[in-house]
Amino acid sequence: YLEGKFIKEFSDFRKSFGTNLLTNYKDKITDFDFYILSIKDSSKKDIHIIRRMNGYKKVNESGMFAIINGNELNQIDDKVIGIDNIADLIVYDNLIFILNYNSIKNLFNLRGSFQRQVTNILKPVKNSNVIDNYEKFERNIRSNDRLTNRLISMKRKGISFDDPLSNQNDVQKTINDFDLNVSYENGKIIFDESPDKEAVLNLISDYYYRTTQHGRKGIVDE
């Protein structure tokens, strides 16, 4: 899911629900991209279910639709659209639940949304001053879609970025044990001297572990 507050167009998008209603839509119906089904929950809050619409443009323009009525085949003169029982997006409160990633890309500027989330998630890291040249570190995350998605996934799983790298001895031990190509001096990661950029993200999220019984080392989610 995405939080609407990080999507610049989200407020206007929600306000558009139910406005500018069309009455004479027959000539325009195949131009629609999405349809929205609006319902209310038990507390009267709106739930908007959004689905990409199949307008069958090519068939409407150069083919035909027909219906079988007994032994007769009757042509349908009106334009036809396709509606099914699948949802692409569900909007509830300030959240957008994503069932089809391609659909939301067509509605919003997701890159901008994800980058704003990165900045918000990493605020405690910035304020803790544990990464030398922090701005470059954040830019590196924001410019890499894979690292951006990984960071957001970490946050959704409940990973806290408060008080990162607080135990200097354990941080240095982790770097040594896992043979990380990360420069760490005087309680700070020297980002420009740390070739393994993903290892920096793993360190601040405390993603390295060692099993208690056999001492096996690993990285969460790998």
TrEMBL record:
Q: What is the superkingdom listed in this entry's lineage?
A: Bacteria
Protein name listed in UniProt = DUF4868 domain-containing protein
Origin organism is Limosilactobacillus reuteri
Q: Which Pfam families match?
A: KwaB
Known InterPro entries for this protein?
KwaB-like (IPR032359)
